[in-house]
Amino acid sequence: MSTVPRFGHGSRVPGWDDAVDLEKDPIEVPDPATTPVPDDLRAEIKSHLAKYPDPRSAALPALAAAQRRHGWCSPEAIAQVATVMRLTPAYLSAVATFYDMFHTEPVGLHKVYVCTNISCSLNGADALYERLADAAHGDEDLHVQHFECLGACDIAPMASVDGVYVGPMELDDVPKLLDDLAAGRPPLPEKQLRRRFSADPGANSRQFEPGPQNQPIIAAGTGGTPKPPIAFGAPMPGDEDRSDQPAPVEQAPDPPEDDEERA
Amino acid sequence: MTEHLLFKDIDEPGLSTLDVYRRRGGYESLRKALAMEPAAVLEQLSASGLRGRGGAGFAMGKKASFLPKGSMDKYLCCNADESEPGTFKDRELMQKSPHMLIEGMIIAAYAAGINRAFVYIRGEYAEQADVLDQAVAEAEAAGYIGENILGSDLSLSLVIHRGAGAYICGEETALLDSLEGKRGNPRLKPPFPANQGLYQGPTLINNVETLATVPHIIAMGGEAYAELGTETSTGTKLVSVSGNVQRPGNYEIELGTPSREIIYGLAGGPPEGREVLLWFPGGSSSPVLTKDDLDLPYDFDTMAKAGTMLGSGAIIVVDDSNTVVDVALKVAKFYRHESCGKCSPCREGTNWTVKMIERMRSGEATPMDLDIMASVQTNIIGHCLCVLGDAMAMPIGSMVEKFRPEFEAYIEERRRSGERDLGSSDLVDPPLQVLQGAR
């Protein structure tokens, strides 16, 4: 979000409210002939378009796909989406700036969202965020952002690391998390949300021994290690291999050796 | 032990797969429902007295019956945007038992004559969306979704739609706009979504937990379900307990369970030596209650009578090691960030409230500011298209009302010490930061 430039005493620098150039022609729907779109991105957007009665509904998934490919919603990424969806870049920019998960400025490869909403901050999330932000300072691969409630107050304080929820985090976990990310390992495997049983004493959790073979999600065929997040993660080397697949819906689980390639 | 419906098998390894879910009796309710007339299914839902689990608590059967009859395209939207601070019940349900939600959606679609269904899941729930995608693919392959489901004349498509991080998209009309590929701004009501919703067609919008309860109602019968809970708040409810408690998590309770039993019995209460200062009974949008209210039964009507609401069933406990002003600031900042900016009372009111509380912290406030702040809250309530502004005004108003002496003492103490602690500079908006630097 760009802010109005101000003097040290608080007044706005003159010219802040100058109108845009009204003589200039508006940017129209880009010409497919002059805006090349990578084939796999085009195929993914087309598959999203086919899912909805009104193709415009695919704006969010299409922007997400472009962001995954480009790292952020750059003007180029938005132009490519606009070309395939036949919408103006202005419309898509308006959508992209509304949502917190679309980045309209360049960000690091790994996106770490730290929840600093009420339940997490009661459990020390503000200190956690500061520690993480300090540790990531100067590291261009890391994007640390404080976020509103991520819906995991049971593991407060928590963070979403490339879409994988980890918590409860202690300040000492920060170096390990950064090591895991730098080495391309799954972040804090023993603190991942997916490994937790329900807290409810009336649930059937007590019948099962905690262990890798009994983890609720891992049993779904993902091979025991988290697969790269499909929706909003950093682009992974394996992504290109899936280019002929229509959409995340139909994607088969990643082969196990995929994880080693991820470094 | 409370009757468990939603959480009975929740930790079964592999419950998210079709095989295990079917072994646990999954999709039997769907067969049972398809053997009945749609009107009879609707009648069961009405008889169950099931009230919406997303926040408003509107009767689910009634809402479904508002949809017009006829053969136009009708839509079912499952609201999985779960962004209310303190709420995480739908996350656990979708992650561990996605087929329960899908089965509930198919039955609800059958009852209301719907042919297109969507799940609007918040973008942050990437793992859960993947689980749902996989479950939908399995259900499609098994013939539970598609043309002529199980030989009946019901046809249904189901799409998992990922949001991209906006609290307001949990509001039903903003959700529809977002699903149509626009900015998530709320719409003017009426027309209500039941008449003109998604793509201007009749639309039924329900929360994840509401829809996941539907198979259980069909299995046990609406009247048997209505015997659980209290007379006007029937059934069981997932409660997300978080904040300063020893065992935070989701608990399935019968509505009407005493609040103390939930906060102290199930969740273990605040850490040793501390006491409850205040608690939110239904997410951060609900007016707060104090430790004197701990013996109230936890159901829709008792909470309404106590001046608050059950909301999404998210109990946030704040203990006495915190000050009420800090809690108020957190709450106000959240709503300032999430206000979509469409209606002035909400856009300006949330911003003013944050600034006034920040003034209290910097020692520049006077007790008169409390009255101004309270009047800002009353000027927001009921004056906007949606209830986001109200969702800040109600808890802040209730905090000022119930903790006025604490606020006054805090203002006085900060004024005397002349302390200018404006919090972490990262959490303050840049223009304000520049101003502070200049002062």
Brief summary:
Chain A is 29% helix and 7% strand. Chain A is built from 8 helices and 4 strands. In chain A, a hairpin with a 2-residue loop joins strand 3 (159-161) and strand 4.
Draw up the topology in text.
The complex is a heterodimer of chains A (263) and B (439).
Chain A: H1 39-49, H2 59-70, H3 75-85, H4 89-98, E1 110-115, H5 118-122, H6 125-136, E2 142-147, E3 159-161, E4 164-166, H7 173-183, H8 258-261
Parallel strand pairs in A: 1-2
Antiparallel strand pairs in A: 1-3, 3-4
Helix pairs in contact in A: 1-2, 1-3, 2-3
Chain B: H1 18-23, H2 28-34, H3 38-48, H4 60-65, E1 75-80, H5 89-96, H6 98-112, E2 116-121, H7 126-141, E3 157-162, H8 172-179, E4 203-207, H9 208-220, H10 222-226, E5 236-243, E6 249-254, E7 257-258, H11 259-266, E8 276-280, E9 289-290, E10 297-298, H12 300-305, E11 314-319, H13 324-338, H14 344-361, H15 368-380, H16 388-402, H17 404-417, H18 430-438
Parallel strand pairs in B: 1-2, 1-4, 2-3, 5-11
Antiparallel strand pairs in B: 5-6, 7-10, 8-9, 8-11
Helix pairs in contact in B: 2-6, 2-9, 3-6, 5-6, 5-7, 6-9, 13-14, 13-16, 14-15, 14-16, 15-16
Keywords:
heterodimer; A: 263 residues; alpha+beta; globular; disordered C terminus; B: 439 residues; alpha/beta; 5-stranded mixed beta sheet; 4-stranded parallel beta sheet; 18 helices; 11 strands; 44% helix
Describe this structure in words.
Chain A is an alpha+beta fold. Helix content of chain A is 29%, strand content 7%. Chain A has helices spanning 39-49, 59-70, 75-85, 89-98, 118-122, 125-136, 173-183, 258-261; strands spanning 110-115, 142-147, 159-161, 164-166. In chain A, helix 1 (39-49) packs antiparallel against helix 2 (59-70), helix 1 (39-49) crosses helix 3 (75-85) and helix 2 (59-70) packs across helix 3. Chain B has 439 residues and is α/β, with parallel strands linked by helices. Chain B has helices spanning 18-23, 28-34, 38-48, 60-65, 89-96, 98-112, 126-141, 172-179, 208-220, 222-226, 259-266, 300-305, 324-338, 344-361, 368-380, 388-402, 404-417, 430-438; strands spanning 75-80, 116-121, 157-162, 203-207, 236-243, 249-254, 257-258, 276-280, 289-290, 297-298, 314-319. In chain B, strand 5 (236-243) and strand 6 form a beta hairpin. The interface between A and B is large, with 82 and 91 residues.
